[in-house]
Specification:
Keywords: Ribonucleoprotein, Ribosomal protein, RNA-binding, rRNA-binding, tRNA-binding
Number of strands: 2
Structural class: mainly alpha
Strand order of the largest sheet: 1-2
GO molecular function, one term: rRNA binding
Order of helices and strands: EEHHHHHH
Subunit structure: Part of the 30S ribosomal subunit. Forms a loose heterodimer with protein S19. Forms two bridges to the 50S subunit in the 70S ribosome.
Shape: elongated
Organism: candidate division TA06 bacterium
Mean pLDDT: 90
Low-confidence stretches: none
Distance between the termini: 83 Å
Protein name: Small ribosomal subunit protein uS13
Radius of gyration: 25 Å
CATH class of one domain: Mainly Alpha
Length: 130
């Protein structure tokens, strides 16, 4: 099993798909990396030689910000928006969509499950009528 950027790549997948398991590398970045390193995209991860894995590892480490470094940068950017108190920061703080999407009906991913307020029944008195 190839381990690149602290991620174990799935052995049975094509290397083009396997690289996308690394946070920060999508399909297009994966293709660019394979073109630069001249590794066949149709090869399986288990069939890679140690030399090819080393080439991929050095290319990713030198040219891309991935995994922990990228996550830290994204959270740092969000923290900055919260600190300066801009509109986008307020939306992050309130857990609402940031990029102008509607919230009247949708936005369930950001808002979480519905919080419906149910009717509260009055206590029924037991006793004599009268």
């Amino acid at each position: 099993m190839a381990r690149i950027a602290g991620v174990d790549l799935p052995r049975d997948k094509r290397i083009e798909v396997g690289l996308t398991y690394i946070y920060g590398i999508g399909p297009s970045s994966s293709q660019k990396i394979l073109n630069v390193t001249k590794v066949d995209p149709d090869r399986r991860v288990k069939d890679l030689t140690e030399e090819e894995v080393t080439k991929l590892r050095t290319e990713i480490e030198s040219s891309y910000k991935v995994e922990g470094a990228l996550r830290a940068e994204v959270s740092r950017h969000i923290r900055r928006l919260l600190d300066i108190g801009c509109y986008r920061g307020m939306r992050h703080r309130r857990g609402l969509p940031v990029r102008g999407q509607r919230t009247r009906t949708n936005a369930r991913t950001r808002k979480g499950p519905k919080k419906t307020s149910g009717m509260v029944k009055k206590k029924v008195r037991l006793g004599k009528k009268g």
